[in-house]
Design the sequence.
């Protein structure tokens, strides 16, 4: 198998884990292809096949980082996609909520509120709302 085939396979496998379930929504890749298929493929291979498939951080850890950053910059459409992906790869729902609360001193309460609204919306669409608390 060539290096190109390996990265393509890794990209597809990682994308399926991230975006293959939960709320039905198109990842940005679908839109990118409408403008430039070759560039879309290069972006996808770099982001999903290169960065997201690295093992330094687990997929749940990467998704929590992505959700924190997207929440902090108030990128709610992209956050919606990544909240769903975070849940798809096994992020603990309570920890994900905690990630959003942790944004308060750095990004402010309006960012926290928007992130929690997006999160709750995705959970409702997935029929996972309200979040069940773990026994302490």
Sequence:
């Amino acid at each position: 198998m060539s290096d190109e085939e390996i990265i393509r396979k890794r990209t597809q496998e990682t994308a399926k884990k991230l975006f293959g379930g939960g709320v039905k929504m198109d990842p940005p890749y679908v839109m990118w292809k409408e403008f430039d298929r070759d560039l879309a493929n290069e972006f996808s291979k770099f982001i999903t096949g290169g960065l997201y498939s690295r093992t330094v951080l687990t997929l749940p850890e990467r998704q929590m980082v992505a959700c924190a950053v997207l929440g902090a910059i108030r990128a709610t459409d992209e956050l919606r996609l990544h909240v769903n992906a975070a849940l798809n790869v096994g992020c603990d729902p309570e920890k994900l909520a905690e990630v959003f609360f942790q944004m308060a001193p750095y990004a402010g309460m309006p960012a926290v509120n928007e992130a929690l609204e997006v999160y709750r919306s995705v959970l409702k669409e997935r029929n996972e709302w309200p979040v069940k608390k773990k026994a302490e």
